């Protein structure tokens, strides 16, 4: 994990937020390449939801919803973690996330507790854990100039509830009937206590959630469908099959409303951990909001049959997926006696698709390279780089996962061909400038 953190910082993908003030726990900023990578992850998700199917529609609901939302959803009463304090080192942990805390403590000796640091607080001679107490994870704030109980609102801890509140509206204007889904991507906020393992667990994070509404008798089949579809998505984007698994929750792990939940898990550097949860939520949410709002949230079929749809929910985290893609792509290899670090990202996810590099900064090479760059830019994220030796420039692109480098040399000026270097095989081929846009577009779409 430390290598991924270091690379992310070195290349400006992801770095601690508020760094000039010493940082703020579990909070990160995304730099240029991080933004591009994140956008590609989100785009791939939207494509899988919207472009590759025709039974899902999009939504972008508000972060601050009516406070009754969280009463009805059960978050106000039940969205809590069992919290334990270490009386010696004063750190706090989620009682159900002690394994994560252990991994983090092992990775950061400077913040370990006690004199026997590789153990958890509570396992040391000096440390003593308190009994768990319930701690609500929602961030509270207030609306308006006067802070009183009537003005209290919450930053959403998940995007899903906004979808349930808008269900009837979407049903009407999207002219849909179950089975159909509503998808959204947006920020959620949780007052997380367990140290974060980089961007695995942060205070604010983006979620990609989809609520799929179905007639009750179809729920089991659609649950199976979505479990498979979501596993396929990660695999198609290059996650190694032996690093990915689907884990069905034991009956005692299930939320009270869920008749089935499975986690897509990835073998992160700190061990198998959740990437995404897929839940069969029954009619719990719509029934709860109908009761609390007094609104009818039933579906009426043309034959007059009325029912509250059941819901299948695949809920993924953008940052966690991105971390899995980074971890899976990270590689160090020896090339011609030198070692290189390379991100073997799926080209769809790569922040930059092609780098255009003049071999030397003279003889008309930079001018021609800029022309080629301008042409390629119309089709894909392309970068021009003339600074430093060609070897250094290749390494830079390898580290951000650029699948192709196009080099302009003295031959290019004579025969209008360039060298295309493949990031993974390091194969170099000579290609006509005119054929380049088509060739790279085709490889990107493959
Ligand atoms: P965990 O058990 O790890 O806290 P969860 O089961 O509470 O996760 P869900 O409520 O199912 O998570 O949220 C769906 C997805 O949102 C998670 O699988 C994860 O990818 C992402 N997610 C949830 N909490 C966080 C967080 N604090 N930071 C980053 N991503 C998160």
TrEMBL record:
<dbReference type="InterPro" id="IPR027031">
    <property type="entry name" value="Gly-tRNA_synthase/POLG2"/>
</dbReference>
<dbReference type="GO" id="GO:0005524">
    <property type="term" value="F:ATP binding"/>
</dbReference>
<feature type="binding site">
    <location>
        <begin position="317"/>
        <end position="320"/>
    </location>
    <ligand>
        <name>ATP</name>
    </ligand>
</feature>
<keyword id="KW-0648">Protein biosynthesis</keyword>
<dbReference type="Pfam" id="PF00587">
    <property type="entry name" value="tRNA-synt_2b"/>
</dbReference>
<keyword id="KW-0067">ATP-binding</keyword>
<dbReference type="GO" id="GO:0070062">
    <property type="term" value="C:extracellular exosome"/>
</dbReference>
<dbReference type="GO" id="GO:0004081">
    <property type="term" value="F:bis(5'-nucleosyl)-tetraphosphatase (asymmetrical) activity"/>
</dbReference>
<feature type="binding site">
    <location>
        <begin position="313"/>
        <end position="317"/>
    </location>
    <ligand>
        <name>substrate</name>
    </ligand>
</feature>
<dbReference type="GO" id="GO:1990742">
    <property type="term" value="C:microvesicle"/>
</dbReference>
<dbReference type="InterPro" id="IPR033731">
    <property type="entry name" value="GlyRS-like_core"/>
</dbReference>
<keyword id="KW-0436">Ligase</keyword>
<dbReference type="InterPro" id="IPR002315">
    <property type="entry name" value="tRNA-synt_gly"/>
</dbReference>
<feature type="binding site">
    <location>
        <position position="94"/>
    </location>
    <ligand>
        <name>substrate</name>
    </ligand>
</feature>
<keyword id="KW-0963">Cytoplasm</keyword>
<dbReference type="InterPro" id="IPR045864">
    <property type="entry name" value="aa-tRNA-synth_II/BPL/LPL"/>
</dbReference>
<dbReference type="InterPro" id="IPR004154">
    <property type="entry name" value="Anticodon-bd"/>
</dbReference>
<dbReference type="InterPro" id="IPR022961">
    <property type="entry name" value="Gly_tRNA_ligase_bac"/>
</dbReference>
<dbReference type="GO" id="GO:0006426">
    <property type="term" value="P:glycyl-tRNA aminoacylation"/>
</dbReference>
<feature type="binding site">
    <location>
        <begin position="190"/>
        <end position="192"/>
    </location>
    <ligand>
        <name>ATP</name>
    </ligand>
</feature>
<comment type="function">
    <text>Catalyzes the attachment of glycine to tRNA(Gly).</text>
</comment>
<dbReference type="GO" id="GO:0005829">
    <property type="term" value="C:cytosol"/>
</dbReference>
<feature type="binding site">
    <location>
        <begin position="200"/>
        <end position="205"/>
    </location>
    <ligand>
        <name>ATP</name>
    </ligand>
</feature>
<dbReference type="InterPro" id="IPR036621">
    <property type="entry name" value="Anticodon-bd_dom_sf"/>
</dbReference>
<dbReference type="InterPro" id="IPR006195">
    <property type="entry name" value="aa-tRNA-synth_II"/>
</dbReference>
<protein>
    <recommendedName>
        <fullName>Glycine--tRNA ligase</fullName>
        <ecNumber>6.1.1.14</ecNumber>
    </recommendedName>
</protein>
<comment type="similarity">
    <text>Belongs to the class-II aminoacyl-tRNA synthetase family.</text>
</comment>
<dbReference type="GO" id="GO:0046983">
    <property type="term" value="F:protein dimerization activity"/>
</dbReference>
<dbReference type="Pfam" id="PF03129">
    <property type="entry name" value="HGTP_anticodon"/>
</dbReference>
<dbReference type="GO" id="GO:0015966">
    <property type="term" value="P:diadenosine tetraphosphate biosynthetic process"/>
</dbReference>
<comment type="subunit">
    <text>Homodimer.</text>
</comment>
<keyword id="KW-0030">Aminoacyl-tRNA synthetase</keyword>
<feature type="binding site">
    <location>
        <begin position="205"/>
        <end position="209"/>
    </location>
    <ligand>
        <name>substrate</name>
    </ligand>
</feature>
<dbReference type="GO" id="GO:0004820">
    <property type="term" value="F:glycine-tRNA ligase activity"/>
</dbReference>
<keyword id="KW-0547">Nucleotide-binding</keyword>
<dbReference type="InterPro" id="IPR002314">
    <property type="entry name" value="aa-tRNA-synt_IIb"/>
</dbReference>
<feature type="binding site">
    <location>
        <begin position="274"/>
        <end position="275"/>
    </location>
    <ligand>
        <name>ATP</name>
    </ligand>
</feature>
<feature type="binding site">
    <location>
        <position position="158"/>
    </location>
    <ligand>
        <name>substrate</name>
    </ligand>
</feature>
<feature type="domain" description="Aminoacyl-transfer RNA synthetases class-II family profile">
    <location>
        <begin position="2"/>
        <end position="351"/>
    </location>
</feature>
